[in-house]
Each structure stands twice: as structure tokens, then as C-alpha cells.
Design brief:
The chain is mainly α and 295 residues long. The protein has one domain. A two-stranded antiparallel sheet has the order 1-2. Strand 1 and strand 2 form a beta hairpin. It is globular, with a radius of gyration of 20 Å.
């Protein structure tokens, strides 16, 4: 049954990507007889499938996140190199995605290297269809999240940056900083042997149960705002980018999986129950006073 579901998910991912490529290639530039957006999207999937082969042969997930981040960098750089004329918006979008990709890729690779494995893959890396599904979905993840930026970079319509773009940059910076700070706070928390069996509830993690995911969503909203003025026609479909990130992190692979694991580990802990009760799941909110927290 799992194999059948995995095959359906692979087919659905490819079909979804095909629809997005057709829509976002509207009013887009050509590269060697093919729409540049389509070329970058095909490249995103090819990288996943090629890297899947050695990963399956050695049954390892250690390079999964690193390859995902590298794919962002690759298709972004390819799109910029293929442009006949590079404008300021395209350069800025490229820098935003590459900065995020480099930082997150290095962070995730260092984390899995330190831990030794990713529990999400303990079973599926031995099931061909399931493991291929995860790599295929990662290809879709790359295409959908970069769709607004790639649509703007590859668009025939080059417009002034404008105030919307400025708001987008500020929004991206805010999200990027929140993600970096929250990841670093959690990394340092885990390095302390005293916290080995504890959950983090300090710093930004007192403001949100998942501040890193909040930052992730915010920064992709910023990317979409920077891209927005350059979009036209069917390219507006690409604004699904931050919506997709939100749904993915809050409904599918992010928060639900982490919350389930945390509940199994600390579900009976009264302090954990209090933390869950007073701390927003996603959106940042100043923590209540300690007296109220302990009441």
C-alpha cells in the first residue's frame, strides 16, 4: 500500500510541477529553444533523481538536505547566467535565495553529521518507492518555493523596483534573521549536556514553538513581494510560493511531525504542557510573565 501511495505521490508531484512550469513560463525568456523557467525546473528534478541513485545504493539520507540547498543555488545561478541582460531585481532575488540556501544547507548538513542520521528516513530509505518519492517531492519543493523569484528573473517584463520591492527586502531580512537566530539558539541549547533530555523554551522559542519555521515563511513572503512587480499574466500563479511553504511546514512535514515526536517524549511533563498551552505554535508573541507561566 505504501508503495502504491508513493507512486501516486511521485506522479502528482510531476503533474503539479508541469502545471506550474506552463503557467510561470508565460511571458518568460527562452534559452536554447526552451523557456528558461522550464529549463531550471527540469534541472531541479534531474539533480534530485541523479543524487537519489547513490543515496539509494548506500541507503543514506546524509546528503538529502545538502542536495536540496545546492539545487536552489544551481537553478538560481543558471537562470542568472542565461539572462541576456541582468537587472537589479534579478540580482537581488538571486542573492536572497543563494544566501538562504547556503546558510540553511550548511546548517542542516552540520546537524545531520553531528547526529549521524535523520529519523524521518529510518524506514523509507530502505523502500525504493518511498525514498524516490521524497527526492521527487524535494524537486517539487524547490520548483514551487522558487517559482515567484524564477518567474521574475526569467520574465520578459522588467519594471522598476518600487516600494513593494523595498517592503519585500525588509520582510525577507526579518524572516532570515529570525530563522538564523532561532536555529542558533536551539543548536547551542542542544550542545549543553544538561539539556540532553529537555525541550527548548527560551529565547525566540519562548515566543513561538517553531520560530525557525515562522522565519522561513516570512522570508519567502519577502521574496514574493520583491518578485511581484515583474510578474504578469499566468505568472501570478507563482505567488503560491509562500502559501506552499506555509502548508508544507504547518500541515505536512514540519510542525505535525515535530509535535508528534515531542508529545511522545515530553507529553507527560507538566512544564512541557504549560509551555504548549501558553506559547503560540507558529506566530511570534511575547511570552507571558514568568509568574503567570508558572501558575
Amino acid at each position: 500500500m505504501k508503495t502504491k501511495q508513493s507512486v501516486i505521490a511521485i506522479a502528482a508531484s510531476i503533474c503539479t510541477a508541469f502545471f506550474v512550469v506552463i503557467a510561470c513560463s508565460d511571458n518568460g525568456l527562452n534559452a536554447s529553444g526552451i523557456k528558461l523557467f522550464a529549463l531550471c525546473s527540469i534541472l531541479a528534478f534531474l539533480i534530485q533523481w541523479i543524487c537519489f541513485i547513490p543515496s539509494w545504493l548506500f541507503h543514506t539520507e546524509k546528503f538529502f538536505d545538502l542536495i536540496g540547498s545546492a539545487t536552489y543555488l544551481t537553478i538560481t545561478i543558471v537562470s542568472l547566467i542565461a539572462l541576456p541582460e541582468v537587472d537589479a531585481r534579478s540580482v537581488l532575488l538571486g542573492l536572497m535565495i543563494c544566501s538562504w540556501g547556503l546558510r540553511l544547507g550548511a546548517f542542516l548538513f552540520a546537524r545531520i553529521k553531528a547526529v549521524g542520521h535523520d529519523a524521518r528516513f529510518d524506514l523509507m530509505k530502505y523502500n525504493f518507492a518511498q525514498f524516490l518519492m521524497t527526492w521527487t517531492i524535494q524537486g517539487l519543493w524547490v520548483v514551487l518555493t522558487t517559482s515567484a523569484a524564477l518567474s521574475a528573473i526569467t520574465s520578459n517584463s522588467k519594471k522598476d523596483f518600487g516600494w513593494v520591492g523595498t517592503i519585500g527586502v525588509i520582510t525577507w531580512l526579518l524572516g532570515f534573521i529570525i530563522e538564523i537566530v532561532s536555529d542558533e539558539q536551539k543548536r547551542r541549547f542542544k550542545l549543553d549536556p544538561k539539556n540532553q533530555n529537555s525541550f527548548i523554551n527560551r529565547g525566540l522559542w519562548a515566543w513561538s514553538q517553531h520560530p525557525n519555521y515562522f522565519g522561513e515563511i516570512v522570508l519567502w513572503v519577502g521574496v514574493s513581494l520583491v518578485a511581484l512587480p515583474a510578474l504578469s499574466g499566468w505568472q501570478y500563479i507563482s505567488l503560491i510560493s509562500p502559501i506552499f511553504v506555509f502548508v508544507l511546514l504547518t500541515k505536512i512535514s514540519g510542525i505535525p511531525m515535530l509535535d508528534s515526536a515531542a508529545k511522545k517524549r515530553w507529553g507527560e511533563d507538566l512544564e512541557f504542557q504549560k509551555y504548549k498551552e501558553v506559547t503560540p505554535v507558529l506566530f511570534l508573541k511575547p511570552p507571558r510573565r514568568q509568574s503567570s507561566f508558572n501558575s
